[in-house]
Specification:
CATH topology of one domain: Rossmann fold
Pfam families: Rib_5-P_isom_A
EC number: 5.3.1.6
Number of strands: 18
GO molecular function: ribose-5-phosphate isomerase activity
Order of helices and strands: EEHHHHEHEHEEEEHEEHEEHHEEEEEE
Protein name: Ribose-5-phosphate isomerase
Structural class: alpha/beta
Keywords: Isomerase, Phosphoprotein
């Protein structure tokens, strides 16, 4: 190629098109200016702190240049480093920190200990398990997968949410549903708060309805949590309120009725990574009721589900029969076999309402319509209501055992009855 002086316009040796000359000296000058600016920025962090040009042994690739603040952090003792950075996880472990000494990791270790204790104590071979949702249940599923692999256990898992379903599949466990396994041996789930009477607030993750359905059809409901969830009365630790799943079109009247009847503040839960409110796996909204005093939770739970206070019964088309444990106000996304079992427990027999050859009659709210052929003794107050309230996050008299991972590394247990 023809030699061209810097700053001039020349021609390629093989053609007549003009080419801008290569500005190699100018590029080098810009690179030097950038280096000087990095040095000046690094020197502002404190007297005597000079940036290094290469990483120290063991801190990275040999000869790698470290810009600005990163170079300072690598070359300066921990006590002399500028504030504003807390190392956690693997970075903390590499520098000699125990994961249990840091607030967030301490809680995770507590969750893990509680989950392992519950799985080791209550899970046996040939069981059908209900798998809850949330951050705590991740450790339980991991431990369950370890035991299945080590002990060759035959375990069937019923999920309570999309997250639980993904956990089951990712860990290689057997996935099933309530249609095929309507009766569960054990259900394991987390909680947002647990009081001294084993009443729970659940639903911070938005899966409260399906969690209550699965827990209600289990012979034994086990709860795992860390020390932050343990309290004497609900509301002491959990300040975000009681979640209430509602039909979208009814959230405004339900909000007004809740405030009028029980006081406090009711808020529609808004999504973080999408515009608009949180939508549950059932296609509903969630209201968070922040109560201002301690209540009789059994009465409150029943009263909320009866808003606006009318009992409605239609023998031919029943959205919900009087429930067995755990299914209360709606049959939305409830498996058919479970609702049939609930009808039988209430007296009589439940069957899907079929219109000719069209199959299952489905409402616009994605609930099945059931026909309840009750027996001679008609149940009193069958708790049938088309109120707009789907379910509450109050789990009253459902948990048998609660495992708490404590700060000191131990696991404490609150137990209502042996199971």
């Amino acid at each position: 190629m023809q030699q061209v002086a810097p700053g001039t316009v020349g021609h390629c040796g093989s053609c007549s098109s003009p080419l801008a000359a290569l500005q190699v000296p100018a590029f080098r000058r810009r690179r030097r200016r950038r280096r000087r600016r990095r040095r000046r920025r690094g020197s502002r962090h404190g007297p005597g702190l000079q940036p290094v040009r290469k990483s120290p042994p063991g801190a990275g690739r040999a000869g790698m240049r470290l810009p600005g603040r990163l170079a300072l952090l690598r070359s300066t003792p921990l006590a002399a480093r500028p504030p504003g950075r807390v190392r956690t996880g693997r970075a903390a472990a590499r520098r000699g920190f125990s994961r249990g000494r840091l607030g967030g990791t301490m809680a995770e270790e507590a969750k893990k200990r509680a989950a392992f204790a519950a799985v080791d104590k209550h899970v046996q071979n040939n069981q059908v398990l209900g798998i809850g949702s949330g951050s705590t249940i991740v450790h339980a599923v991991q431990r369950l997968a370890e035991r299945v692999k080590e002990e060759n256990l035959a375990i069937v898992c019923i999920p309570t949410s999309f997250q639980a379903r993904q956990l089951i599949l990712q860990n290689g466990l057997t996935l099933s549903d309530l249609d095929r396994n309507p009766e569960l041996d054990v259900a394991i789930d987390g909680a947002d708060e647990v009081d001294s009477d084993l009443n729970l607030i659940k639903g911070g993750g938005g899966c409260l309805t399906q969690e209550k359905i699965v827990a209600g059809f289990a012979k034994c409901f086990i709860v795992i949590a860390d020390y932050r969830k343990k309290s004497d009365n609900l509301g002491e630790q959990w300040k975000k309120g009681v979640p209430i799943e509602v039909i979208p079109m009814a959230y405004v009247p339900v909000t007004r009725a809740l405030t009028k009847k029980f006081g406090g503040v009711v808020e529609l839960r808004m999504a973080v990574n999408k515009a608009g409110p949180v939508v549950t796996d059932n296609g509903n909204f969630i209201l968070d009721w922040k109560f201002d005093k301690v209540h009789e939770w059994r009465e409150v739970n029943s009263a909320i589900k009866m808003i606006p206070g009318k009992q409605h019964l239609d023998v031919s088309l029943v959205v919900l029969a009087k429930p067995a444990r755990g299914v209360h106000n709606t049959a939305a996304f409830t498996d058919c076999s479970c609702v049939a079992r609930a009808c039988r427990n209430s007296g009589g027999w439940g069957s899907m309402n079929v219109a000719g050859a069209l199959g299952v009659v489905s409402q616009s709210l994605e609930s099945f319509c059931w026909e309840w052929l009750h027996g001679k003794d008609f149940p009193e107050a069958p708790s049938l209501a088309d109120t707009g309230v789907v379910e509450t996050g109050l789990f009253v008299d459902m948990a048998e055992v609660v495992y708490f991972g404590m700060e000191d590394g131990s696991v404490s247990m609150r137990e209502k009855q042996p199971c």
